[in-house]
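Lab manual, section 2.4: Encoding a predicted structure.

Procedure: take the sequence of the chain (262 residues), apply the prediction step described in section 2.3, and record the output as structure tokens. A sample record is shown.
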Amino acid sequence: MDCEVLLCAHTAGRGVAILKAMIAAADRAGVRTFVSDHYTGRSKWLMTYGLGHTGRRIWTDAHIKAGGRLIGWDLGYWDRESAMRLTIDRDHPQHLIKNMNGSRFDLDNVQLRNDYNPHGPIVLAGLGRKTREALNDVSMSWERNTLAAIQSAYPKARVLYRSKRQESFWPLKSLIGDVEKALRGASLVVCRHSNIAIDACIAGIPVVCSDGIAAALYGNDLNKVVKPDLGTRLQFLRNVAWWQWRPTEAEQAWKQIISILN
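Recorded output:
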């Protein structure tokens, strides 16, 4: 099988690392790769990093529309310095989640916590820059609409805003910095699809989300919040671990990708 790999000049360093590792391991996996800095459509399979990038988005959408298969990478769900999350054909892989053994998750030594406080604040996680650009949401309409929905469902709750920076025209102070600290003592996390949903799952805090891998566990109804028990959270995270790989695990990642695409 052939696979075109988009390795553009503006690809982030960690993205370059996983793509180069996948290219190096491709022959051993029985895959022939073609590296390009712009989309050619020469292969049924297309691999890239950062599906939210507005320039590459045009190419990946065109590839899917033409009946191709898409292999996407981005920052991992935990250990984000080295791990990359994997998805196939969509922005996030919740449609492919199934129960798996815990070997990969257990090796990462991620400790589940119970930071949940039913009387604590609700954390609203804002959109990242790439998502905002992809949605053309320059006025923060998603945050404004979601904040209004939270205040309607929980009029007495304190709402904290989690963002990487303080928006000058946004009414809530931003929680900037350590995610674990920001989540400690929260009663709920509300996001669109952010990795903070996985952080919340590890911390034992319920989540409401409309997209992303966490949608395989949590719902999108503020009035019917899903509160999984410890065993359910653990199994879910064990499943998630099969959707993130390090460059040193490229050959294993190819095996999973091929098993799905063939």
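Check your result against the sample. Residues 2-83+246-261 form a domain with the Rossmann fold fold (CATH 3.40.50.2300).
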